[in-house]
Design brief:
It is a single chain. This protein is 34% helix and 16% strand. It is α/β, with parallel strands linked by helices and 342 residues long. The protein has a single domain, classed as Aldolase class I (TIM Barrel, Alpha-Beta Barrel), CATH 3.20.20. The strands form 3 sheets. It has an 8-stranded parallel barrel with strand order 3-4-6-9-10-11-12-13, surrounded by 7 helices. A two-stranded antiparallel ribbon has the order 1-2. The protein has a two-stranded parallel ribbon with strand order 7-8. α7 links the parallel β11 and β12. α5 crosses α6. Bound molecules: flavin mononucleotide (FMN).
Length: 342
């Protein structure tokens, strides 16, 4: 039976355990998307703490694909050098690392950038940081697909172990997938058209991302709004695109329209379970997971294959080491220097 500390293999990638560090923007890049020492230290610390897979925060495929000008970017070859440092540090401490390729779409809050979306619907008309986006034309769509592909090429050069395509939280690809934002009537209209865009992005990324490395998609499984998406809708989307070379899915929810999520301990696990059953993909689930027994139970009961932790890992970077102790798991990657604390 699998448990939290059992390894997991996807394609040629073997993770030492099922603990995933959720992608979390640090808003600490310089104004041109470049990483700093903050990033390499931040991620290396979680690798030292025993995480199996680290997902680097949303990293923009275009300048206008950032949420703020503190976001990381990978739209320029010059971004690669800083990312190589992050990858090397994480590998040094035994974890694997994936990059989340992102485009903010209508949620970009940088005043100087062109704000694009499937339809000219503002994210939050009551918040002056959000503007009415420009409806994308065919040329914009082509440019964005190309930006995901070029960024994936840079991710290959950097040496990431996994690529994750951000199609959650109301950012550009998610905007196409939800009827709450996508009002188009062309080929990319409706859920079917939104699915087509996601398929084309995955197809383009897979052309440059090596066959032997896993490709993951992150989705928002519930919009928390009438007529919005539900987990079954996302399962259909994933079933329609998985043949393009999707290995796994990371199931999140919400942030598509400005309404609160109904959050409680492991609140996104029921969505992960539905998507796991309906798609047969490898699934990472989570949402306010803080406790080792709870995380282990999610894996043992087969509700998800991996568990992501976000804020808990900001509070406790060595959470996996402590969890191994409370679950009685013997780890051969406890840092030698810390063994007296075991
Ligand atoms: C500071 C912060 C930044 C975040 N940035 C991202 C991000 O870059 N990409 C993403 O997919 N989710 C992002 N999230 C959402 C987390 O990945 C995660 O899904 C969410 O925090 C719920 O998990 P948790 O309850 O374990 O924190 C962010 C969350 C936080 C707290």
């Amino acid at each position: 039976m699998s448990n939290l500390f059992s390894p997991l293999t996807m394609k040629d990638l073997t993770l030492r355990n099922r603990i995933v560090m959720s992608p979390m923007c640090m808003y600490s890049a310089d104004k041109d998307g470049f990483s700093s020492d903050w990033h390499s230290l931040h991620y290396a610390t979680r690798a030292m703490g025993g995480v199996g897979l680290i997902l680097q925060e949303a990293t923009a495929v275009e300048g206008r694909g950032r949420i703020t000008d503190g976001d990381l970017g990978i739209w320029d070859d010059r971004h690669v050098a800083g990312f190589k440092k992050i990858v090397q540090q994480v590998h040094r401490f035994g974890a694997k690392i994936g990059i989340q390729l992102a485009h903010a779409g209508r949620k970009c809050m940088i005043p100087s950038e062109d704000i694009i979306s499937p339809s000219p619907v503002c994210y939050d008309a009551n918040d002056p940081r959000y503007r009415i986006p420009r409806e994308m034309n065919d040329q914009d769509i082509e440019t964005v697909i190309r930006a995901f592909q070029d960024s994936a090429s840079r991710a290959v050069e950097t040496g990431y172990d996994l690529v994750q395509i951000h199609a959650a939280h109301g950012y550009l690809l998610n905007e196409f997938l939800t009827p709450l934002v996508n009002k188009r009537t062309d080929k990319y209209g409706g859920r079917t058209g939104g699915t087509e865009l996601l398929r084309e992005v995955i197809h383009a990324v897979r052309k440059v991302w090596p066959e032997h490395k896993p490709l993951e998609v992150r989705v928002s499984a519930r919009d928390y709004e009438a007529d919005g998406n539900e987990p079954e809708d996302l399962a259909k989307v994933l079933n329609a695109v998985k043949a393009e070379g999707v290995d796994s899915v990371n199931v999140s929810s919400g942030n598509v329209v400005p309404v609160p999520s109904d959050a409680y301990n492991s609140y996104q696990i029921p969505f992960a379970e539905i998507i796991r059953i309906e798609t047969g993909l490898i699934v990472t689930g989570g949402g306010m997971v803080t406790d080792a027994t709870q995380a282990d139970g999610i894996i043992r009961s087969g509700r998800a294959d991996m568990v992501f932790l976000g804020r808990e890992l900001l509070r406790s970077p060595y959470w996996p080491l402590a969890a191994s102790k409370s679950l009685g798991a013997e780890l051969d990657y406890w840092p030698e220097q810390y063994k007296r604390a075991k």
